[in-house]
Amino acid sequence: MRRVPVITVVVTVLLALLASAFTVGTGTAQERSVRADDGARVVAEQRVGPRQLDLTIDSPALGATAHVRLLTPDGWSPGRRGWPALWLLHGCCGGYADWTKYTDVAQLPDLQRVLVVMPEAGAAGWYSNWWNYGKGGAPRWETFHLTEVRQILERGYGAGSRRVAAGLSMGGLGALLYAARHPGFFRAVASYSGTVHPLLQVPGGFGPDWFLNLDRQLGVDPYAIWGDPVRQRAVWAEHDPTLRASSLRGLPIFLSCGNGKPGGPYDPPGTKDPNEAYFEQQNRSLADRLRALGSPAVTDFYGPGIHEWPYWQRELHRSLPMLLAALGA
Q1: C-alpha separations of 248 from 12, 88, 126, 147, 300 in Å
Q2: For the chain, how far is it from start to end, CA to CA, in angstroms?
Q3: Which of 27, 46, 196, 221 lies 20 to 30 Å from 279 when distance is taken between CA atoms?
Q4: Longest dimension (CA), the chain
Q5: Beta-strand relationship, 64-71 and 115-119
Q6: What is each CA distance from 274 to 187, 196, 204, 312, 317, in whole angstroms?
Q7: Which segments of the chain have a pLDDT < 70?
Q8: Residue 63 φ then ψ, to 5°
Q9: Is this model's pTM higher than 0.85 or not?
Q10: What whole-number distance in Å separates Cα of residue 243 and Cα of residue 54?
């Protein structure tokens, strides 16, 4: 056998590696220069599943990097524009990967024609540009989502202007809050066990203090977000979907919640959840307000059940026909 010179082997290997590097790099976010108007940009992409793509975004609105998980539709490519989008928003103390971790969203056939967008929102970001004692500034989650992420997805990942949103708990607030503060951004909204009336005070110590105490438990300055619920009531009201219900008129809305009592199909026997009971009162208040405005929501107040993922997966299935109909998908 003829011996090949070592230098020839080395050169051949190097050329192969270079070719491989260029092949892998083709079409990456960096080459597409995917940026928002304020300079937010994708600094990393990672394929984490057959249809799952994670983006790391350097965000001026947050003053940090944050992640977005995409569930891409069949036939998707970055250059193909106009995909209808379902935004799935996570809850408090969770993260952008929760929907694919705890539900079957990645296996749903009806979503193979839709770009599913799952953005990071902070453990207790409350889908808001924080008040920060009147100074504003980072973190600005609303700007990150509705401006930076939207522009990046439209410019580099094929997203179109047809959008709907669904969220659980804090994410239910986010979906409704964004719809109320930005009419027309979403064509329909679903909220599962959403914290949709932060200013609601009910017997038993449940009210704005519930939110403040939760933030403290998570190591977040509760007054940095919306301020004091008495002195900065106007700021809280701006972020209360029930008080902004008039801006939701005409929008297809799905509201669901358990009542926290024992007997739910996914709960250990005897399990109670006073927090879920509080959220049901919030959701019933919003439903009543929408009905009074002549724009009733579709509701599923399903009785016994706690604040847990099996219910939210089920409610996603129940609300999906409404969401997809609004998308035309």
Answers
A1: 63, 19, 19, 20, 18
A2: 62
A3: 221
A4: 90
A5: antiparallel
A6: 32, 16, 10, 17, 25
A7: 1-32
A8: 65, 30
A9: yes
A10: 35
Residue 239: partners with Cβ closer than 8 Å, 6 or more residues away:
126, 128, 173, 177, 198, 226
Token readout for 18 is: 């270079």
DSSP 255-272: EEE----S--TTS-TT--
- Helix then strand then coil, % of the chain, to nearest 5: 40, 20, 40
Q: Where are the beta strands (DSSP E) in 37-98?
A: 41-47, 52-59, 64-71, 83-89
The two three-digit tokens of residue 198, written as one number: 């932060």
Q: Are 258 and 276 in contact (CB under 8 A)?
A: yes
Question: What are phi and psi for residue 65, nearest 5 degrees?
Answer: -95, 150
235-287 pLDDT, tens digit per residue, is: 999 999 999 999 999 999 999 999 999 999 999 999 999 999 999 999 999 99
Do the beta carbons of residue 222 and residue 212 sit within 8 Å?
Answer: yes
The predicted structure's pLDDT at residue 21: 32
Do 161 and 320 touch, CB atoms closer than 8 A? no
pLDDT reported for residue 238: 98
**So what's the pLDDT on residue 30?**
45
Q: What are phi and psi of 125, to 5 degrees?
A: -80, -20
3-state secondary structure (DSSP) of residue 206: strand
| Alpha-helix runs per DSSP H in 218-293 | 222-225, 233-238, 274-292
What local confidence, expressed as pLDDT, does residue 32 receive? 54
Match 């993260």 to its residue by tokens: 95
Q: How would you label 160-183 residue by residue, b for 16+ Cβ within 10 Å and e otherwise? A: eebbbbbbbbbbbbbbbbbbbbee
Amino acid residing at 180: A
Burial 253-279 (b: 16+ CB within 10 A, else e): bbbbbbbbbeebeebeeebbbebbbbb
Count, residues in the chain? 329
**pLDDT reported for residue 203:** 85
**171/180 Cα distance (integer angstroms):** 14
